[in-house]
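Figure 2 data, in text form.
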Amino acid sequence: MYATNYHRASSVEDAARLLGSAEDGKYVAGGQTLIATMKQRLASPSDLIDLRHVDGMKGIVVDGGTVRIGAAVTHAEVASSAAIKAVCPAISALAGMIGDPHVRHMGTIGGSIANNDPAADYPAAMLALAATIITDRRQVPADDFFAGLFETALEDGELITAISFAAPQTAGYAKFPNPASRYAMAGVFVAKGSGGVRVAVTGAGASGVFRHTAMEAALAANWSAEALANVAVAEDGLMSDMHCSSQYRANLVKVMAKRAVLAA
């Protein structure tokens, strides 16, 4: 790796100050993406601002039907949270499927969402749950946050501090994991709440996570796996790579959607 300066931020304000004074600074929390990228010499930030010790970015709060998760909360914490399991077990189940124990104990929900890997799990949950992404500057609805492959609505220097969503009436997640990386080759999160039914797909879209409106309509009329039998999943816009074709992914999306409804 290239030489870099390390800073431990004590607060959200301190983190912003440190980033503003750096020549080419980067925030780092779990480091599951950034550190690996630096090891490959694909990134060489002048400064790293460590967010792991910022109390304002930690903690899980369930207040009535509203869930708030700090951006620095790890996947393992989400997976094991009794408070979250009581109101939305699907997102705890999702967190428990991410990577391996090392990744789950280091990686953070904020880092995953900010990176917006097209095969990551959390973006599907955020979109299906109509979550709000809270930053140090504003609040962004998930529908407006995910902008494409590794692209989000975050502006330069903007920092995710938490995410928030209303607990659904029911929700489920299922994915077909890559056997090596455990990233989703296709993953589907389904949720039914006061705002209706939402279905989000990750791991399959050529432009990243997306909602499947035809499945939403079918499940709104009949919340059952059988309701998806006649829903078509088009190959257009799906990824084709060394792992599988767009045609195969289209089939995976449908199968995972059915399994997600059954899980719910």
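Caption note: Residues 119 and 207 are 11 Å apart (CA to CA).
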